Each structure stands twice: as C-alpha cells, then as structure tokens.
C-alpha cells in the first residue's frame, strides 16, 4: 500500500488495513467522494477510480501527479530547491546547514521559504506549474499541510523538514501508483455529483470532514450540520438506486457525540455500523475515561 505524500488530518492510510477488507470484492468504478490526499482511492482494487474533492488545490496537485512524467516532477522539485537555495539534507546532511534533526531546518529555510510563498501567491495562472510549486511549498511548510487564508493566499509558516529520503520515496511510490491506475479527477461539491452516472457495480466511499472534530480544511466553518444532513440524503439516494456505499465517521470523540449520525443510523436499521479500532493520537491510550476516546466507524449499506 502507498501513502499519500499530502499530509491530511483524517487521512485514512493507517486505517486502510481495517477499512479495505470491509469493501466489496468486485468494484467497477470506485468513487472517492471526499478524496483528500487520495489514500483510499490509490489503494483500492477497482477497474477505475473517480477522485473527487471540492478543494481545487488538492485535485490540482493530484492531477499534476497523474499527468506529468515522474522524472519531470522530481526534476522540477529539485530545481526549485536549488533556485531558492532551500536545504537539501539528503545530499548535504544537517551539519552543512548548521541544524540538527531535533531542531529541524526551519531557521535555515525561513527566508527562502517566505520568498517562495510570496512568488507562489503572486502566480497569475492555476496551471500545472502552480500546483507543482504548491507541492514544493507543502514539502517545506509546517507539518506538510495545505492552508490558504480567506483571500486565497497560502499562509502556513516554514516547517522543520525538507525533501528528505522518506518524502522522496513516498512521493515516488505514490506517483507510480496514480499513473498506473485508471482514474479521473473531479473538483466538485459532493452534492453536485450526478449519481445517475453510477450503477450497482460501482461503489461510493465517503470520508467527509467530521462534524465533531476539527481539521485544517474545516477551520473556516467549512462543514456544517446542513451539509451533514445533505450527505445522509445523498447516501440514502445511492441506496435507493442500489449503489453500494461506505461512510467513514466518528460517532463519539472527546466526550462529543454526533447525534445527527446517531439518529440517521436509528432511522435506517438496514445499514451496518462497523466499529474500528483506531485512535488519532497516542495520547488517547492514556485517557482513563474511555468515553473520551474516538469511536471511529465505517457504515455500509451492504
Ligand atoms: C477527511 S478528508 C478526506 C481524507 C482522505 N480520505 C484521505 O485519506 O486522505 C475530507 C475531505 O473532504 C473535502 N470536502 C469538504 N467539504 C466537501 C464538499 N462539500 N464536497 C466535496 N469535498 C469536500 C475536504 O476538502 C477534505 O479533503
């Protein structure tokens, strides 16, 4: 299995060993409705994969990884690192930059990173060059995340790491995988996806932002109770059309309960709720009160 080179809060890579066996054996088109970093769509066995996310930057990066030869992508990243005189620890080691692994490379890279960020934010066109440059920013940014402010400017600060060996091999394996699977990309709100294009041989996987937890893509009130209701209606509609689906979510987390989800499950006893064994942070293991631990679930209609 390959991990996405985009670091996503709620990314499902670690959960794949529990989720994938619960998917149907035979899938014609796999629809990754909220694909994010693409961890699930890239690892599922299906004849075709439909990656959808309403974040145009994520879809832009994934499309660039699919369309451009791997050597060109790596060359572009290395050239940008050289042009901006960013660190290259895998070639030169930490001492060369007067840094160490514990403290990281932020201090050395900060100014060059800010210049790169400014140049990126001034790019007029959203083409492959824009998305590859965005990916270089992600490599050097805090926690390798993507975050834009309300005026559409990338605004994360510099991070601790660079394009190190681990990152290089993650990216290389992910590009290989994406280029080998038969896939298409879609940049839409899930409510705009026309389900008439799918049938009972296809399978829709929904991994939405979780209503009761917080993530970067949900910071500006992105996911609401209204969207939560709309999603359940969308899934009910799939069921009415004999299209199989699976939904990832948490029923409870840190003392909060998703009551809308709970009610939907009560109203629809035909759906199956599988409780997964997963904790988002190691600190969960130390929590004495078990009600504070996340109850991560996969809900299926088959
Ligand atoms: C939990 S993440 C998906 C993580 C992904 N499964 C992975 O493993 O990398 C949820 C995603 O839903 C996307 N999203 C939020 N609201 C959406 C909407 N209305 N329609 C489609 N995608 C949406 C976000 O941009 C985010 O990428």
How would you summarize the topology of this molecule?
Blueprint: H1 16-19, E1 29-32, E2 48-52, H2 56-67, H3 70-83, H4 89-92, H5 106-121, H6 128-140, H7 165-180, E3 183-186, E4 203-206, H8 225-240, E5 244-250, E6 252-253, E7 256-257, H9 259-267, E8 272-275, E9 296-300
Parallel strand pairs: 1-2, 1-4, 2-3, 4-5
Antiparallel strand pairs: 5-9, 6-7, 8-9
Bound molecules: S-adenosylmethionine.
Keywords:
single chain, 302 residues, alpha/beta, two-stranded antiparallel ribbon, 9 helices, 12% strand, binds S-adenosylmethionine
Q: What does this protein structure show overall?
A:
The protein is α/β, with parallel strands linked by helices. 34% of the residues lie in helices and 12% in strands. The protein contains 9 helices and 9 strands. β4 (203-206), α8 and β5 (244-250) form a beta-alpha-beta unit. The site of S-adenosylmethionine has 24 residues, from loops.
Overall, the morphology is globular
Major beta-sheet overview: 7 strands, mixed
Strand order of the largest sheet: 3-2-1-4-5-9-8
Chemical compounds bound to the protein: S-adenosylmethionine
Task: Tell me the structural class.
Answer: alpha/beta
Q: Mean pLDDT, as a whole number?
A: 92
Counted beta strands: 9
What is the number of helices?
9
Distance between the termini: 25 Å
The H/E string reads HEEHHHHHHEEHEEEHEE
Uncertain stretches of 5 or more adjacent residues: 280-284
Gyration radius (Cα, Å) is 20 Å
Helix content: 25-40%
């Amino acid at each position: 299995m390959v991990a996405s080179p985009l670091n996503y809060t709620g990314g499902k890579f670690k959960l794949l060993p529990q989720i994938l066996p619960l998917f149907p054996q035979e899938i014609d088109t796999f629809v990754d409705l909220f694909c994010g970093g693409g961890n699930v769509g890239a690892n599922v066995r299906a004849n075709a994969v439909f990656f959808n996310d309403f974040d145009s930057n994520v879809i832009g990066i994934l499309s660039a990884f699919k369309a451009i030869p791997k050597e060109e992508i790596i060359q572009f990243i290395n050239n940008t690192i050289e042009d901006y005189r960013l660190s290259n620890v895998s070639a030169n080691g930490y001492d060369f930059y007067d840094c160490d692994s514990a403290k990281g490379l932020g201090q050395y890279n900060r100014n060059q990173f800010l210049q790169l960020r400014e140049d990126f934010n001034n790019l007029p066109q959203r083409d492959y060059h824009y998305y590859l440059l965005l990916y270089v920013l992600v490599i050097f940014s805090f926690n390798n995340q993507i975050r834009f402010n309300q005026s559409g400017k990338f605004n994360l600060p510099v991070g601790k790491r660079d394009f190190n060996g681990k990152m290089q091999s993650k990216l290389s394996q992910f590009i290989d995988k994406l280029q080998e699977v038969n896939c298409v990309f879609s940049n839409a709100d899930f409510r705009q996806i026309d389900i008439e294009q799918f049938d009972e041989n296809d399978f829709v996987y929904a991994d939405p932002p979780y209503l009761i937890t917080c993530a970067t893509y949900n910071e500006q009130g992105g996911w609401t109770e209204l969207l939560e209701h709309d999603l359940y209606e969308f899934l009910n509609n799939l069921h009415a059309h004999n299209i199989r689906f699976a939904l990832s979510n948490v029923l409870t987390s840190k003392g909060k309960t998703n009551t809308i989800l709970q009610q939907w499950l009560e109203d629809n006893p035909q759906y199956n709720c599988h409780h997964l064994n997963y904790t988002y942070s190691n600190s969960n293991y130390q929590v004495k009160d078990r009600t504070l631990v996340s109850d991560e679930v996969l809900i299926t209609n088959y």
